[in-house]
Fold this protein.
Amino acid sequence: MPSDVPALPDDLPPALKTPKGGHGQWGAGHTEPLTPQERFKKDDDGLNVRARIEQIYSKQGFASIDPTDLRGRMRWWGLYTQRKPGIDGGLTATLEPEELDDEYFMMRIRIPGGQLSVEQLRVCAQISTELARDLADVSDRQNIQLHWVRIEDVPEIWRRLESVGLSTIEACGDVPRNILGCALAGVFEEELADPSDLIRELDRRFTNDKAFSNLPRKYKTAVSACPHHCTAHEINDIAFVGVLKDGVFGYDLWVGGGLSTNPMLGQRVGVFVPPERVPEVWAGVTSIFRDWGYRRTRMRARIKFLMADWGPERFRAVLERFYLENGPLEDGPAPATPKDGRRDHVGVHRQKDGRFAVGAALPSGRTSGTALMKLADLAERLGGAHGGRIRFSAEQKVVVLDIEESDVETVVDELAALGMWARPSTFRRHTMACTGIEFCKLALTETKSTAAVLVEELEQRLPEFDDPLRIHINGCPNSCARFQTADIGFKGMRVTTADGRKMDGFQVHLGGTLGIEAALGRKVRGLKVSVEDLPGYVEGLIKRYESTRADGQSFAQWARTVDEDVLTEGASDLAHAADD
Ligand code: SF4
């Protein structure tokens, strides 16, 4: 608990909805832990678990791990136990944590801005092939996620990662997570500025910093000057969005975005942040979250709840009066309207220097260490003077930079041979899926293979369809693959069909979008689809959109305005769904 937390000013409107006994805000003096998570964080900083992993757990094995470290503090170093194979999604909510835990870990590698050198990618690939059963997932927060990691191998993995400047630190847990950036930062002809150095500075200064290693909840940052708004700033806890004010470059500050079971879009604070003040403003906003965030219950602990109660005006006043060393900020403009509906940088893009960036879609981010090694070889061979630069996007995509025009087709072909598609169908391009029941202990349904089947079916059934239609498949309400912001978003649940068969199913959210018309998807009562009806339902929906839309109307605009029965046609006939 910091000793210098200021009192809230008297002349600002009070926070709303204060429960009896308060929200558990440190700033209001509520420092006694109110949840088991707050207790273990107070007992010992999550970052301290590293020493025990290195000195005890990796030597004495899985059974030696303290349960609170296992299910709590190990996240501070990017480690979660993965789900024991074969446990039905219907049991997720009923089993004890130790019944769901496998003795293997998911390990998340932090990749600031999604930027990797060939050397770094090779190390990640080698770890995957040698120590993680040759599996690797590119996440929508520009991390690499490994699975099947043994506790015995963790120190060696850290040694290898750290030898090339990578880490798993604060990749999970109630801490500042990996910082998102544009996959084309520094090379994109249309960008307003290159924030890469700023992202690296934020990462260097504020990770492994005990001032910010006990936040009320996870904390997601995005920094970008991409005209396509590719980092989805609207759903980050804090985002700096590049703008021009009277011809001068700076950032528009957004705070309070986040999805999960209570989705909210971030709000503009209304300030113009010069690039050199971004670290100060980041530290100020994050300190407000640390001091005033709600620690009474995990369900309301994200900064979005504080922002929703305070509002941007009060938030700005507290920030400027108490948390900025260098005084108030000027008012700033809103970001320009984003360029088009595709934010993922898939395809071939001319760089500022005349070379080309080639972006490719992976099957819902899934790849292997073997493929990543070949990707590194390709980038090194054809990646010019930089020796090969690879980027991940915030849409589970990969981008290879610095390709000569004469080599572009070679790169496109070789990527395709690795299962990375630079010219994918719209379905292959825009379908995302979270980890799902394969490894996630919270999952109710399978996701990545469901997405793969759906993509193949839709490619066959609707080969001509080419609108930028985003389909996001999630295994539970936590929305790691952002179902509320998809054109068609699926939230996993268990369902029972009319003839009594239990299977995976999904609640359907329609018309979610980010950008100029940012809105969360529409939920229609009773609109649920079993996994076996999924391709048929989506096919029918797209056909109805094509036949009834107005000229130029996007899918999201159409889905938000048509009658409910147009959307529910083809939904499954269910006897029961988990949230009925
Ligand atoms: Fe797991 Fe749910 Fe997140 Fe999917 S959305 S990865 S099932 S927590």
About this structure: Residues 434-436, 440, 442-443, 474-476, 478-480 surround iron/sulfur cluster (CB under 6 Å). DSSP finds 16 helices and 22 strands in the chain.
